[in-house]
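fyi for ur records
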Amino acid sequence: MSIFDLTIAGAAKELAARKVSAVELVTAYNGAVEALNPRLNAYITVTPELALAQAKQADARIAAGNATPLTGIPLAMKDLFCTEGVRTTAASKILEPFVPQYESTVSAQLKAAGAVMLGKANLDEFAMGSSNITSGYGPVENPWKRAGADAKLVPGGSSGGSAAAVAARIALGATGTDTGGSIRQPAAFTGLAGIKPTYGRCSRYGIIAFASSLDQAGPMARNVEDCALMLNAMAGFDVKDSTSAERAVPDFCAALNRGVKGLRIGIPAEYRMDGTNPEIVALWEKGISWLRAQGAEIVDISLPHTKYGLAVYYIVAPAEASSNLARYDGVRFGARVDGVDLIDMYERTRAAGFGAEVKRRIMIGTYVLSHGYYDAYYLKAQKVRNLMLRDFTQAFAKVDAILTPTAPSAAFGLGEKMDDPVTMYLNDVFTVPASLAGVPAMSVPAGLSAEGLPLGLQIIGRHFDEETVFAVSAAIEKAAGFTALPEVRAK
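which gave:
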């Protein structure tokens, strides 16, 4: 078996048994990154020397007998997490020269667990996108191919670099952030497991903000168990984040073998949308039958305000982005383009530094927050968001978890939807409602399309009940038996 066939859990066992050293593992992954990243563009910045130094520390820690399951595990860090002494760009030219003097809480906790950082993963600029084509450092290529075709496909977004790195086996796992589906949708497009925890479960401190009431960090990995191992390290209360929840972090791995017998699984009528790919609907039906066969009770439910999800999201998220991105002015940090006066400098800096999608969302956000439109758009959107939260609260009075598709299609080609922003936004139709409600949701690879591309199923749970989400996800994963691998990968 190749060293690249190991999962995080498998690699941890090999490291603990001294069958492989952290230096050997990381050296292999550094070599794979060097070989494949020029093609896939999954990393913006690679840190091979830092990774080797951390690997040596990990070996010493393993020898001393105080290792964690992540000690010596090579990970990709989405380039939205500030990393002390390592360039952090948010995939935007406006932050190209930015080297943080501090560490995000999530990356610090992974570092404290002994994980190794291979580099900073590519993403849509400021996490704004569903395809990873808005990055200021070029698009990421999905390592999967359509059967019999060589057209380049998108890996999903915004955490597309993280997804491509793990799928192509140039990282054992990766951090992502999910604002409207940016962990779950790329996980589905690349055949991975990925979870957006409850809002507040992981600290947002040191994560470059897109939409503050929606952004949430989470793990992406090859299977459900690896996600549980990563989330154990990533989650926890943080006094530096006012939205961080002061709740104990359970052992998520302990939930993996619970099974689903006796659980009530909700199937929302509103997710059966006109025009959904028949393959997606068929996979959903298969997922329902898998859970029923394992003893779960299937319950039809209604989430009546789901149909407003995209409209609400594309008012609330751009509004918060407009506010958050006002800080990039060329004065305090990042790039600066000099002008004849202060206003001219602002305008030139932002014109050169921000990409088209970021500018579009800033303008939408500024518009809906402007005088005369605030009540009509932003305030109304927040009221509907509350109704969506109420829908989930009422549904979870009847069921323990909800099963839906993750995305309305398999991965599409680079450039196929670039000229139509609205069509691109529709990629988030199944993931946005859980984000607006702040509930945990996970995507699990469950099958292949007729073209041989991975498809995912989404499991949604109650606030702070990631354990049930993991239990149902593990049941889906076991029944699906997904073992397909992408064409482009380290071997």
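The first strand starts at residue 43 and ends at 46. thats all i got for now
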